[in-house]
Amino acid sequence: SLSLVWLRRDLRLHDNAALYHALKSGRPVLPVFIFDRVILDALDDRRDRRVEFLVQEIDRLRTELAGMGSTILVRYGNPIDIWRELTTQYPVGDVFANHDYEVYAKERDKAIGELLNERGIGFHTYKDQTIFERDEVLSGSRTPYTVFTPYSRNWHGKLDPFFLKSYPTEAYFEHLHRGIGQDEANVLTLGDMDFLPVGEPFPNRTVSDTLLDAYKETRDIPARPGTSELSIHLRFGTISIRDLARQARAANDKTFLNELCWRDFYFQVLDHFPHVEKSSFRREYDRIEWRNNEDEFDKWCRGETGYPIVDAGMRQLNTIGWMHNRVRMITASFLCKHLLIDWRWGEAYFGKKLRDYDLSANNGGWQWAAGSGTDAAPYFRVFNPTLQTQRFDPKGEYIRHWVPEFNSLDYLPPMVEHTMARQRALDLYKKGLAK
Ligand code: FAD
């Protein structure tokens, strides 16, 4: 019988916990990837960078595996149906996978675990995409942290090299299953799933030590390529979080490590407080009566608010599917506070467009901007887009790159005046929270 390893957001053979355990199971190992129709059918744009990235990365895995005489089984459908088929078609002894912390994924894994167990097949899952997960970093009273600073203190304190060791999968590749033909493995193209290519290259999967050395100074300047742009690779596991954290540690880059800590933090928030997916972490924020003006929302989406930094950010997002972190904070704050539009609208728009879309970080970032989240800035702190521009893009380089017409004298007037909008936000928040 076989050990199947179900790859999901861990698309690599190197340092992969589930693959490592499968390779040590004593049975021949066959990797599987399922293009999940539950997720893909919900996407309304047929040009989707994430789907394109997946197709490309599955191809890369197939080539790597072919070099060792093996392959990856690729399927397209509802995972529960696919697992019924796979366990009928193949003599499966055990299935291995890595943990996923999203609500949908946890329910899916539970259902599939049950199906496999009914058929006498073990389902074994492991921590892989985070450094610490679930209950590994808890407060003194053994409860999950809901504020970042004490969480991060504890997280950094626990960061022993032991937790950053790679799983030496390479030493066991002789246990990969061989002898499955291409037809059976099933090569799926974008077209087979009714998607079209976007055709833009994806960022590299490595970060230089030079960038890490300068990260602290350059990470907040959106005109500079001062961040790693590894987010899509971390999202789909095409790089190992342990390798990356080790590199940051060796470069002695605490600031960069701290960003990886934010990533773990939001995963554990979603895992422990699944209500955040649909509601405010602080429930009283759901009493705010958002203005939710659809025309204003459309202007924000298109990058036509008349605030150049906001417009530049939205156009960067619409054009390349990525936005600099500083500008994500500014555009998100603008939507929630200046336009008083429900953070969930913005969250969903980012969710459609971001190539690095990750429910946990996106939800965390949006709830932070709205003031409704775990680690919220107090609601009365309203970003001033003009001051943010003076601080982080003083020469307007980032703005002119994404909004070339900004140089002309008749650039769009601001859609709302800042002082009025700020006061309006304070009043509306106060009213909602006092209810
Ligand atoms: P770097 O600065 O090079 O950071 C390295 C890695 O650390 C990132 O790739 C990411 O995995 C992690 N990281 C950095 N900052 C954060 C953070 N604040 N929270 C969690 N992880 C972080 N990040 C996503 O990966 N997916 C999202 O959907 C997402 N949505 C966001 C929405 C809003 C409103 C905000 C304010 C932030 C969001 N972020 C999201 C966090 C952050 O903006 C991106 O991770 C970062 O811009 C990605 O670029 P980078 O890889 O160059 O980051």
UniProtKB/TrEMBL annotation:
Keyword Flavoprotein: yes
Keyword Flavoprotein: yes
PROSITE patterns (alphabetical): DNA_PHOTOLYASES_1_1, DNA_PHOTOLYASES_1_2, PHR_CRY_ALPHA_BETA
SUPFAM superfamilies with a match to the protein in the record: Cryptochrome/photolyase FAD-binding domain (SSF48173), Cryptochrome/photolyase, N-terminal domain (SSF52425)
Keyword line: Chromophore, FAD, Flavoprotein
Annotated ranges, domain Photolyase/cryptochrome alpha/beta: 1-131
Transmembrane segments: none
Pfam families (alphabetical): DNA_photolyase (PF00875), FAD_binding_7 (PF03441)
Cofactor field: FAD; (6R)-5,10-methylene-5,6,7,8-tetrahydrofolate
Domain of life: Bacteria
Family matches, as InterPro entries: Crypto/Photolyase_FAD-like_sf (IPR036134), Crypto/Photolyase_N_sf (IPR036155), Cryptochr/Photolyase_FAD-bd (IPR005101), Cryptochrome/DNA_photolyase_1 (IPR002081), DNA_photolyase_1_CS_C (IPR018394), DNA_photolyase_N (IPR006050), Rossmann-like_a/b/a_fold (IPR014729)
Family per record: Belongs to the DNA photolyase family.
Protein name: Deoxyribodipyrimidine photo-lyase
Organism (species): Spirosoma utsteinense
Organism taxonomic ancestry: Bacteria, Pseudomonadati, Bacteroidota, Cytophagia, Cytophagales
